[in-house]
Amino acid sequence: MEMQYILRFITQRWWIIALIAVLTTIAAYGFSVLQPERYRASVQLIILSRPDFGQTQATRGLLHTYASRFQSTQRMQYVIDELQLDMTSGSMLGQVKVGASTDSSIITVEVENSDPEIAKAIAYSLALEFIQWRQDDNNNFRQEDRIRAELLDEPQVRKVGSPLTNAVAGFVLGLAAGALVASALEWLDSRFIRSSEEAESLLGISVVGVIPQIDKSKEVIR
Hints:
The chain is α+β, with helices and mostly antiparallel strands.
């Protein structure tokens, strides 16, 4: 019975799911084509300390604090002044995303911009400023208590949100939305009994008679 319901649902509602999937795919692709190109530069910093368990755990506990240091208008203004960029610290802050991995003691800095070279320069400048800050701060501690930061690699740049990728995402989203709409329509239809077969299936009893519909066009006018 369940399989019959699924087959009936697919055969009767498939066009709704397909139509919505096609529309969302076209919309996602068109929207991507019309948008200006965006690029994301990422750079990774590894945080190092003396190799013992206590110091390592303490350093990892500071990772989120270190990551939060990047998210300030003061850091952004430093980069703006250094690179002589024509933007505000607030707008730059909206382009920067920083994450910390406590498992590997790595901080990842990502910068998104319409110019790949600017995105790369901002990420690199933020990373170097952080490394310099750790070097200056370490002067206040003994050698064994110092926490250093090093670049794992040069900033990597890639294009964000290609039209094809967004079209695929739109198709998947359209399938889900179409299935939801089709399910809602099926639920509305299930509230009505349209045939004797449906009545027998739902009620579990046999239908012994059906009142025929009256054709009003053939009524005799008296």
